[in-house]
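just leaving the lab so this will be short. what follows is a protein written twice so to speak, once as letters and once as structure tokens for the fold. can you read through it and tell me how you think this chain folds. thanks a lot i owe you, the record is right below.

___
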Amino acid sequence: MNRFLFFGYRDWAIDLFKKISQGKDEYIFIPNKELCKIDLINAVKPDLIFFYGWSWFVTEDIVNNYNCLCLHPSKLPKYRGGSPIQNQIQNGEKISAVTIFKMGEGLDDGPIYFQEELSLEDKLDDIFKNIGIIGLDGTKKLIEDYKNNNLVFIEQDQEKATSYKRLKPANSEIKPEDFLENDAKYFYNKVRSLQKPYLECYIKCKTGKIIIKDVYYEI
């Protein structure tokens, strides 16, 4: 029997696992980063390991000894690194992609199995739902191709790669001087990219903070 191991903790990743596993014993899900250890993985002996909605580096002893797949919400090789959805929205990107690729020792630079367009013009909740829908379809195809010994990967064009750092809590602050330097569309994109589960945008005031939970845009 094949064994497929999933690591993840975000809601869309958990929902994807539930839909694809349907309670079958060949699927194992682990949401705890402390359990992402080579000893546990050696005990499970998975055919494939999926890292979906995962925010931590995976050690070389795991990546080099197992077939590790990652779902990254960008049109790789563009927007490698942290906070890909937030960085794309704040940069004014309208179309992204859901990409499933084979992990290596580099950051998001492995060969691609699956890539399908993803709209970034929705609210953040809807974007995550669509990531789950598209990712589920791609993962089903990947597992089927694996079972049929028909997996095909395409190398990324490293010369076209761009990388971004993970946003920090301070990036959620909107300062008074920002209004002098940016147009309305900038604030619309920033606020809608930083909704829960992320730290929402805020403005510091004399006695506290104003939290911006939603935003609308008019020309």
User: Anything to note?
Assistant: Strands lie at 4-7, 27-30, 48-51, 68-72, 80-81, 95-102, 112-119, 163-164, 201-205, 208-212. The mean pLDDT is 94. Helices lie at 11-21, 38-44, 60-63, 84-90, 124-147, 178-181, 184-193. The CA atoms of residues 171 and 201 lie 8 Å apart.
